[in-house]
Amino acid sequence: MKFLIDAQLPPALAHLIISLGHEALHVEEAGILGATDQEIWNYAIANGQAIITKDEDFKNILLLTSAPTTPVIWVRIGNCSNAALVQWFQPLYPQILAHLQQGETLIELY
Predict the structure, then answer these.
(1) Strand-by-strand arrangement of the 106-109 sheet
(2) Burial class (CB in 10 A: 0-12, 13-18, 19+), 106
(3) How do residues 21-74 score in pLDDT, each as one tens digit?
(4) 106-109 and 50-53 as β-strands: parallel, antiparallel, unpaired?
(5) pTM (2 d.p.)
(6) How far apart are CA 27 and CA 29, in angstroms?
(7) I need a surface site. Which of 6, 44, 70, 97 has the fewest CB within 10 A?
(8) So where are the chain's domains?
(9) Cβ proximity of 47 and 23 under 8 Å
(10) Under a CB-based contact definition with an 8 Å cutoff, are residues 54 and 6 in contact?
């Protein structure tokens, strides 16, 4: 499984996912930090990555496009420290993988 972490989320989230045995790249590490949502979307599709984001726009792109898609993991937790976000995300990761393996393309995390 491969993931692209959007700009509103910390690079530490990519590091966590890597430590859990999967590929992950933050948009900053990918060199697309200032890219538009559509450019990030296209990058993720070209590289076979699911997008992890706090940005509702990616949900909208997913639901409104008839072009090729990629899964979107929509993080809907409020503002918190990067450490708290990573700690909150880690126990949810097995469930995220299970949903992706079942073919789900939109996963909302509360």
Answers:
(1) 23-26, 2-5, 50-53, 72-75, 106-109
(2) middle
(3) 999 999 999 999 999 999 999 999 999 999 999 999 999 999 998 888 999 999
(4) unpaired
(5) 0.97
(6) 5
(7) 97
(8) 2-109
(9) no
(10) yes
